[in-house]
Amino acid sequence: MAGTGLLGIIVLCLLAFIGSTHPQLQMNFYAKSCPKAEKIVRDYVKDHIPNAPSLAASFIRMHFHDCFVRGCDASVLLNVSSGEKNAVPNQTLRGFDFIDRVKSLVEAECPGVVSCADILTLITRDSVVTIGGPFWKVPTGRRDGVISNVTEANTRIPGPFDNFTTLHRLFSNQGLDTKDLVLLSGAHTIGLAHCPAFSRRLYNSTAPGGVDPTLDSEYAANLKANKCKTPNDNTTKVEMDPGSRNTFDLSYYTLLTKRRGLFQSDAALTRNSTSLALINQLLSNPLKFFYAEFAKSMEKMGRINVKTGSEGEIRKQCAFVNS
Ligand code: HEM
Ligand SMILES: *[C@@H]1O[C@H](CO)[C@@H](O)[C@H](O)[C@H]1NC(C)=O
Ligand SMILES: *[C@@H]1O[C@H](CO)[C@@H](O)[C@H](O)[C@H]1NC(C)=O
Ligand SMILES: *[C@@H]1O[C@H](CO)[C@@H](O)[C@H](O)[C@H]1NC(C)=O
Ligand SMILES: *[C@@H]1O[C@H](CO)[C@@H](O)[C@H](O)[C@H]1NC(C)=O
Ligand SMILES: *[C@@H]1O[C@H](CO)[C@@H](O)[C@H](O)[C@H]1NC(C)=O
Ligand SMILES: *[C@@H]1O[C@H](CO)[C@@H](O)[C@H](O)[C@H]1NC(C)=O
Ligand SMILES: CC(=O)N[C@H]1CO[C@H](CO)[C@@H](O)[C@@H]1O
Predict the structure, then answer these.
(1) What is the distance between the alpha carbons of residues 234 and 213, in angstroms, rounded to a whole number?
(2) Nearest-10 crossing angle of helices 287-301, 273-283
(3) CA 38 to ligand 8 centroid distance, Å
(4) How many other C-beta atoms lie within 10 A of the C-beta of residue 112?
(5) What confidence tens digit (pLDDT) does each residue in 28-46 have?
(6) Where does a domain end: 126, 155, 184?
(7) Average pLDDT over residues 2-12
(8) Is residue 313 part of a domain?
(9) 53, 71, 101, 259: which could join 246 in a potential S-S bond, CB 3.0 to 4.6 Å?
(10) How many CB atoms lie within 10 A of CB 225?
(11) What CATH number has the domain bearing residue 247?
(12) Could you tell me the distance, in angstroms and rounded to a whole number, from the CA of residue 171 to the centre of ligand 4?
């Protein structure tokens, strides 16, 4: 009898342990509940991104913004009047309609099963792979949040004028370290930026001529002559990695070492010795080393404060919480 009692206690402890464990993301979480989900996403991306490769940049940035505010829970996709989309850093995001189309296809296959948070994470990875960039594993099982708060987005997402200390603090708040900061910033090897993100470096520095002395003077002159021709041009877009904005290569890091990083936040990465050493390490290794390290940091970012199990919900439409 004593044996049964002990067994009972062990079983109870095990049950309590399982109950208290926060469910983890897992590979192919939808294998039983919606076996075609990941393939539907992948096929749509493979069919459509080649005609719109610049969306890959928008998606990886959107995923980053999502994860930095209340975890990777698709809160960035919500259309609410004071939501994250309204935050300053969000005003230049594109591709919401693309996500809505993928969600509709997945909903048609298995209604109410696959989260928008997972769909955004998968679209991001598949888009980057489609433009020839790195592959990373995307375990799934994220659930969607119901809160999107513009103030939180503005305070948690780093900005282009932030110094190294601030960047380090904002990443550290998310459980990301200096290595993650350097690697994930490498996403600036693709995509575009609007002039207001950097034109104060061209016009508004206290140095003579108004040009930020930490920016290569030839590059600055070129940007002023051909791109951001006035201090308040809000519409012109500039390649962050000129000449290879759809190619996921190492040239972003090369530019940093030539003082041609576009934002103050890019330039800041060369000003801390730990961070600079990481940049040099990436540059002295083959591209596949960067890809492998980038993959690890992306996987880590994709796990930030995820909602799992019974937390949150599975949204029916990515732009709205379920009523
Ligand atoms: C380290 C702090 C970061 C800062 C301060 C920052 C800031 C910015 C800014 C200001 C833009 C230009 C937006 C515009 O004017 O349209 C931008 C673009 C972009 N960012 Fe970042 N970013 C950071 C980190 C990241 C990370 C971690 C990722 C992804 C892993 C990322 C991916 C991108 C991409 C791909 C674009 C181009 C978007 C497009 O072409 O639509 N950034 N970033
Ligand atoms: C959500 O808002 C965006 C613009 O902010 C718009 O393009 C999109 O159509 C809206 N989505 C829905 C489902 O209303
Ligand atoms: C948004 O977040 C801020 C900062 O956490 C908080 O002060 C504010 O009350 C929140 N707004 C809403 C509408 O929840
Ligand atoms: C970095 O920026 C923050 C916020 O603007 C400021 O308080 C801090 O003094 C700056 N740190 C350095 C080392 O410049
Ligand atoms: C330019 O600098 C002045 C004074 O430092 C500041 O008031 C103004 O807001 C700055 N403008 C821009 C676009 O950064
Ligand atoms: C650009 O945006 C700034 C700040 O929102 C505004 O003050 C300025 O008038 C705008 N410039 C143009 C040309 O629209
Ligand atoms: C570089 O940043 C790290 C944080 O990543 C900090 O501990 C270190 O003191 C910084 N080094 C210098 C030289 O500023
Ligand atoms: C893409 C997107 O949703 N952009 C929104 C960002 O915030 C501004 C200001 O509220 C909105 O007008 C945009 O629609």
Answers:
(1) 23
(2) 130
(3) 29
(4) 13
(5) 999 999 999 999 999 999 9
(6) 155
(7) 63
(8) no
(9) 53
(10) 9
(11) 1.10.420.10
(12) 15
Q: Which atom of ligand 4 is nearest to the CA of 162?
A: 2
Please tell me the distance from the alpha carbon of residue 195 to that of residue 228, in angstroms, as a whole number. 6
Residues in the chain: 323
CA distance 199 to 15: 58
Residue pointed to by tokens 């996709």? 77
Active site residue 22: no
SS3 at position 140 = strand
Q: What Cα–Cα distance (Å) separates residue 103 from each residue in 74, 129, 138, 218, 314?
A: 12, 20, 17, 46, 11
If asked whether residues 92 and 58 sit together in one domain, one would say yes
Neighbours of 92 (CB within 10 A): 15
pLDDT value, residue 155: 95
Question: Is it the case that residue 56 has pLDDT exceeding 70?
Answer: yes
Residue 1 banded pLDDT, cuts 50, 70, 90: very low
The CA radius of gyration of the chain, in Å to the nearest whole number, is 22
Q: 307 forms bridges with which residues in the sheet?
A: 143
Q: Ligand 1 within 6 A of 185 CB? A: yes
The residue out of 133, 155, 177 marking a domain boundary is 155
Structural domain contains residue 9: no
Containing H/E element for 194?
strand 192-194
Q: CB under 8 Å, gap of 24 or more: what pairs does 296-300 form? A: 296/136, 296/183, 297/176, 297/179, 297/180, 297/183, 297/184, 298/125, 298/134, 298/136, 298/184, 299/136, 299/137, 299/138, 299/139, 300/175, 300/176, 300/180
> Range with the lowest mean pLDDT among 11-15, 87-91, 287-291, 317-321?
11-15
* 121 plus 199 within the same structural domain: no
In whole angstroms, what is the distance from residue 302 CA to residue 296 CA? 10
Any ligand 5 atom below 6 A from CB of 204: yes
Are residues 123 and 49 in contact, defined by beta-carbon separation less than 8 angstroms?
no
> What is the Cα–Cα distance from 127 to 191, expressed in whole angstroms?
13
Give yes or no for a contact between 123 and 41, defined as CB atoms under 8 angstroms apart. yes
Residue 264, ligand 1, Cβ within 6 A? no
